[in-house]
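Let's inspect one such protein example.
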Amino acid sequence: MEFKLSDSLSNTLVSYDKTRKKEAAQIKRSTNVKKKKHQFGNINYLIPFDVVSAKDQQKAADHINKSLCENRVYDFYDKPQGNSIAFIYHYESLWVACWLPWNIKDQCFTSRDSLGQDYIYGFSFAHRDNASTINKVGTSFCGGLYIHPEEIGTVKLQGNKAHLTHYQRKLEYKQIGKSKFVWKQIFVNQSMISNGYQEEPWDSPSNDGNISNWHQKSSNIRSTTKTWINRLSKRILRWDRSNSYGYSSTELWERMKGNNNSLHYLFKLEFEQHLKSVIEEKESYKHERSNRSYNHYDPYYGSSEVKRQLLIKNIIPNDFVAEYESILNIYRDIENYEILFKYNFFDKKFIKRAITEASNKINASFKLSNNILASKEECNIEKIIGPILKLNKYFKHICFLYDIWGEKLPVDYLQDIDLYSSMEVPDLYVGHGYVKEDINNWLRNNMPIASYVQIITTQYKEKLKDYKSSNNSYDGRYNERTETYDIRFHELNDSFNMLNRLVKKHGQEFKKPKRWRITEFHDYVQAESWKLNNENEPLPQDLFPTPVKATLDLNGALNIVQMTFFQPRDTHQLAEWGRAVRNCVGSAGYAERVRKKRNFIILAMVENQPRYTIQLTLDRGVLHVDQIADVANARLNEQERSDTEKLFKEALNIRGNQSTN
């Protein structure tokens, strides 16, 4: 329901009108802005003139001074591509400018600062030198790196910038018209970044405020800086972590700091939490990564962390290059790989070849990535060291095999790197109370290695066929960077989990399954495991106290079919039947309903093979079939149902005659 007011009444009530009230306030502010041409100062010198001309910077100053606060920002673009080269904004009494070393007029990189040195980007800032402005913006900027002249010597660097003392500078005075300003212009080069200079001045150099706080008045400025940062990021070397491999990082300068642009850094990320010589120094290093906020350039770095880095460098030196011996040196310091050295696994020719090929790929990928023109994918960390990540998955599975079968393990079963790197290691050692040696001994003595390999190979091939024919990306997704699948074998994990409990209960005397096929293995340990948790209780056999064989020539011409009907004598026999026909009749409360005489469960064998499971209810002397299922809960077709009905009637006749006698 709506009511249109007259113009006079609408004007009378304008203070209640949410839209017109805002418009009136905006008009009022806009009128106030126009009263003074350069109310924030005629700042037209922040960017070097070889990047942006004085004339263009004057346009920016004029625009900012006459704009409302949310629009006090000005972009500069290169003309052919329209890429952001520089910007100036005014926010909370502070002028800020950032630029790339690009000459808009000549359309080329200037690449030199005021001293004739190469630089990556530059920034500057300025503000009026009066008490009210200083009270708002403070006397130090960028964490204490840049200080008001009157405060020099009294301001300390923030704790995480202590290593940057030699970059600390005072602001400079500049007279603009009748106003006195302080300002600073900085050219950021590779040496500064390498030594830990990680400022983000585009977010405001002020220590007391920044544009990243989601204020409406800074939204346009944020949009401008974001575009410019994207342009900056394409001019520097960066690691890509688009899949958050190792850990998530949005650091702009990560790759350019210290020795981070190296294979030493990438291999340190992968292995530092597994090196014995490092973990022996401090057990918690198993769970802690190196602190990325500081590096070797920091003289105030904690002594324990310095020692940790030295220990890492003993295994992965600063000049690390991937090759067979250098990677083997890492593996020797990993506890989990000791068993591989015990059996001289790394001496095998196919392994030497695999490590050498992986090393060559890694070295080539790193070299390709070490260029600002390299694509994002070429700079992806997981992509670069993908070959060694694949081998790590493979070695983990081989360790599992050696743990169980040891010297009995034929080398021929170990050479399928694609298989073992894609199939996850089974969850054999999970849960509480298991004894690793006991379960290993049982498997070693009862499960042939050929059977295990056949089980996982069959699953691997089936999964690959499924994945390649469907769009399912959730289970077993293919990783193009490591060239592996991640296939979790749930049925095998479940089987091993139950086997653990059974070996703990029965020891080495526990019998193995008749066949080592995953379905038979799983059903066997499931049934035996069920017996552990369920006492064997007798069940009534009132309908068929003993098995009854029914034989009929169902379709003439001596097409004789024989069925044997019987009731399970106890709960364990019912569970064994459920395992044989692969359904849940051994659980799910069926035994309880039989025991309370609410239902009959009739088991039917065809030609002496387990087939049909029949649930019946008796009401007023009439047996009603609630459900009937074939193996694996398959439905019966019309012919099977008809034959079963006739044979069951015959069995009831035989049982009736027995009852009469």
About this structure: Residues 550 and 600 are 19 Å apart (CA to CA).
